[in-house]
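step 4 of 6: structure.
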Amino acid sequence: MTHPATPQFTLDDLAERLGAHLVGDGSRWIRGLATLKDAGPDQVAFVANRSYLKDLASSRAGAVLLHPEHAAACPGARLELPNPYLGYAHLSQLFDPILARREGGVHPSAVVAEDVALGARVEIGANAVIEAGVELGDDVRVGAGSFIGAGSRLGAGSLLHPNVTVCHGVTIGERAILHSGCVIGGDGFGFAHDGSRWHKIAQLGGVVMGDDVEVGSCSSIDRGALDDTVIGNDVKIDSQVQIAHNVRIGDHTALAGCVGIAGSTRVGRNCMLGGGVGLSGHLTICDGVQVTGMSLVTNSIHEPGVYSSGTGAMPNAQWRKNAVRFKQLDELARRLTRLEKRSQEG
Amino acid sequence: MTHPATPQFTLDDLAERLGAHLVGDGSRWIRGLATLKDAGPDQVAFVANRSYLKDLASSRAGAVLLHPEHAAACPGARLELPNPYLGYAHLSQLFDPILARREGGVHPSAVVAEDVALGARVEIGANAVIEAGVELGDDVRVGAGSFIGAGSRLGAGSLLHPNVTVCHGVTIGERAILHSGCVIGGDGFGFAHDGSRWHKIAQLGGVVMGDDVEVGSCSSIDRGALDDTVIGNDVKIDSQVQIAHNVRIGDHTALAGCVGIAGSTRVGRNCMLGGGVGLSGHLTICDGVQVTGMSLVTNSIHEPGVYSSGTGAMPNAQWRKNAVRFKQLDELARRLTRLEKRSQEG
Amino acid sequence: MTHPATPQFTLDDLAERLGAHLVGDGSRWIRGLATLKDAGPDQVAFVANRSYLKDLASSRAGAVLLHPEHAAACPGARLELPNPYLGYAHLSQLFDPILARREGGVHPSAVVAEDVALGARVEIGANAVIEAGVELGDDVRVGAGSFIGAGSRLGAGSLLHPNVTVCHGVTIGERAILHSGCVIGGDGFGFAHDGSRWHKIAQLGGVVMGDDVEVGSCSSIDRGALDDTVIGNDVKIDSQVQIAHNVRIGDHTALAGCVGIAGSTRVGRNCMLGGGVGLSGHLTICDGVQVTGMSLVTNSIHEPGVYSSGTGAMPNAQWRKNAVRFKQLDELARRLTRLEKRSQEG
């Protein structure tokens, strides 16, 4: 729980780690990343698209990460890479104080059941609670105040930020990143009605997550009713997302903030759901589907492509008039049809 | 905090607990539930509707829960019940390792104020915090890391999963189930504006919840401004739901994930709100109303029935054309009317 | 962690604190606030608008807070103020047991790094965790189970309710109120795609919040990618709100429950976003904009005013017909245009 030191690297070291071609003084120390405008001599900036080229001349950056074809526009030191945005991603990870931090060991205030299986170099933060039968792979880090329920397993290199809840019987792959406030494996929403009241259907399935999954702050992934809820490999889930029981999400799919997916829906691989998108239950969304923000999907989608619903905001006075007409839309269409008939007859 | 043992029962025992008519070997041990397709000889499956009858012949299930009228289609052991889905609900509860688990006692790391009133067999998990004046009924279980604020009361048999927050002055009935990350009794959103800035209106009401209420992961129920926020009996609330101050929800109503209800709105009994539904403030929704997913309700509803708004997703290119037209809708309607007049005159 | 005592004041004392003109017995003890209908002789009620004047005659309130022009309608004791609703806000704060409570000191179960800088009268609750380099101003109160990450700073008078998470490198101004379950400074949602999979863009910016900010239960404010996410002064954020990386929110703006704001969008000063509103990324919303509930904003807004989208709920049968027509809207418009041409030609 020490204050994380700011990582620093020489340009030579960075070039080697990125596999980049360095032009400039390799002994310069770099202590961070910044935009072209803000970067100082101990920071690296990057040019991910052409529109920023105009800022190159005036940048004070210690080096600039860019595509070789933009090298001529860069008066100072540069790191040339075919995909500078990807290079920026790799570089950013080196400078993250939390990703880089290694505290080591189990904090004395943590409550860890006797039979928990701890891999090498596992860290468990203050006041965390780990129940019986849990297995934590090598280099797993569990943040302060986090909870891992009985029998759950976390793959090597996984990182739980503080105040994360992983319920019992959950299996998480390697290199997961779970952000504060998220809950993995709470009960799905299942009840039988007897004609007058509800009876709980206990949720006996678990949650199974592949490798390289990230889950944002305050998101919830519910456990399955009988079978598991399944999250594929390299699935990226933003904050405030709700994934209901028995949903299955394919590899490499990304869900933006506030997405809600109802029970038993299957989302394919390489999909992208925009912020606030809602999927009804029991749908199948094929691979390669993108849905724009706040759209409602009530039917399965069988063709890759971009899908949308809703209408954008407009001044309230204009909106009121149009929204009223929406309620008359079927009638308007029928009136139009009648008029067309009359016109053809006339 | 032991690893929960898998519960097991003989078929005779299950038949008696369900009040079902058993046909088959009553001494067989059953260790779980599964679908007809997946169930093995030590698991029970169920047929809740006719469409699954075709799977009966090939099922390896140790017994099948079904309606007596489907008995002939079942070659193996069976548990006959008039409402097999309800039977499944009851059966599932028997096999839930968390519902069945009894640890007993107050974990030494929990911080419990001296004057807390503990019923019989109360369990308090590791690192939980219980403030002064709290009353916990018999068999209440408080999960690890959960917090219960001063003067709050939990009825007998209530279960708080790990990392739940119940603020001060909250009253919860019997057999509540609160999932991880939910917050009961945070401040409602109230401010007075002085012409230039906001002044907080302290939220002096509480939250009062009836019996048999369930609240999902990461949901929030805000405390009232002066009076209480009131949740009736047998109300079921899914994950990521927001209930604002002074809302009142009638008995047996169910709210799916991501529902948001604004301040002072009253929802009747036996209502069902689909995922992502939003209700404006100060509305009255009568008993027996269903609202489909992601609908926006801005007016009170006085007749039972199903209500909807919004439009479903379509291919983006098609949607763009239609969404643009929505902004012209009032104008289109006026043009249609003019044309009709001209046609009648002509 | 004592049971908070109910605060009490004489009417004389309240009049002085509010700067109100008291008519009545100043020695009467007041122990709370209530509505005109419910208030008893030891409670104050208020009349914020004319529609409640009719309840004045029958009210048993110990005193009524009202505008001087309504004095004649009040038969009992009264506190006269030009803005009674503002007076109610100030009064309510006096009677909030949590705002008024002072426990003092650091609970022995809290885990506080050695170099944390604690102001005067700082309170740290049971099982809270404070990492290295944190600075807490005078009178800061940190609720039970809350976490404050390395190097973060909280201004004087800030109140963290139980189970709040403030990640590392976050700066929060004075008098903040953070409700349970909220997460400040979780990673923003940033990834680079290499053609087959995602690579994390570490989020190296922080969150900077001004003075007098309130954040509701289970809300999340993500840290910036390179620069900070910035929340202005006197910004009020309700429950279940998601604010993505590098968003900037101007002073005095209020966001109702379930609002979602995508990355890098700038919201002006004195704006109000209704419940469930969604803003796309990289927009600019000018000062003084109001957006009604559940609207989707996909374009920047440059004029103050009220904006809306969506359509309200209607009976499902009616809705189905209209929603189908929405998918034909562009076609209907084209048919109308053709008919108009024919009519003009004819």
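step 5 of 6: annotate
 - The two ends of chain B are 85 Å apart (CA to CA).
 - The mean pLDDT of chain B is 95.
step 6 of 6: archive
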